[in-house]
Amino acid sequence: MSEPISLYDKIGGAEKVRQLVEAFYPRVQAHPLLKPLFPEDIEPVMEKQYLFLTQFLGGPPLYTEKRGHPMLRARHLPFPITPARANAWLQCMEQALNEVGITGPERDAIWGRLVIAAHHMVNQPEPFSE
User: Fold this and answer.
1) HEC profile of the chain
2) What are the transmembrane regions (predicted)?
3) Angstrom distance (rounded) from CA 52 to CA 48
4) What is the pTM of this model?
5) What gap in Å lies between CA 112 and CA 116, rounded to an integer?
C-alpha cells in the first residue's frame, strides 16, 4: 500500500510554497492592520513562513529541523493578534492562494487548516471603541 500524497506534493512542492510566501508578504506589508506587527526586513519572516508552510502542508519537517517545534500560539503571544488581524491575515492569504493558482480540493483543505490556525493565534479582543 502506498503512502498518501501530501498537500505539499499535490500543489507543487517547494516551488509552489515559495511562490505562495512571495505572493503573501507584500500584501501583509501593505495591510494597515498587519504591517505594524512585522519588521521592516521581512526576509527572515518569509523564510520562517516557508519552513513552516512546507511542514504544515505535509512536506519535509524543515521548520522543526531548523527552529524546533512550531509552538505557533506561544511564538505569536508577543504580538497583539485580534480577530480583525486574524481575518486580515486570512484575506491576504486568500489573495495569495488566488495569485499562485492553488485551487480545487487542495485549496479547500489548505484553507480549512489556515482558518483554524489563524483563529487559534488570536490572543486579544478587539480594542474597545465608542
Assistant:
1) CCCCCCHHHHHCHHHHHHHHHHHHHHHHHHCCCCHHHCCCCCHHHHHHHHHHHHHHCCCCCHHHHHHCCCCHHHHHCCCCCCHHHHHHHHHHHHHHHHHHCCCHHHHHHHHHHHHHHHHHCCCCCCCCCC
2) none
3) 6
4) 0.93
5) 6
Spell out where the chain has E strands. Answer: none
- Which residues define the annotated binding site for heme? 119
Instruction: Judge contact between 55 and 70, C-beta under 8 A.
Output: yes
Task: Classify domain 10-120 at the CATH class level.
Answer: mainly alpha
pLDDT in tens, 20-60: 999 999 999 999 999 999 999 999 999 999 999 999 999 99
Cell of 36: 505594524
> Residue positions in the annotated binding site?
119
Annotated domain spans of the chain = 10-120
Tell me how far apart the alpha carbons of residues 21 and 47 are, in angstroms, rounded to a whole number.
8
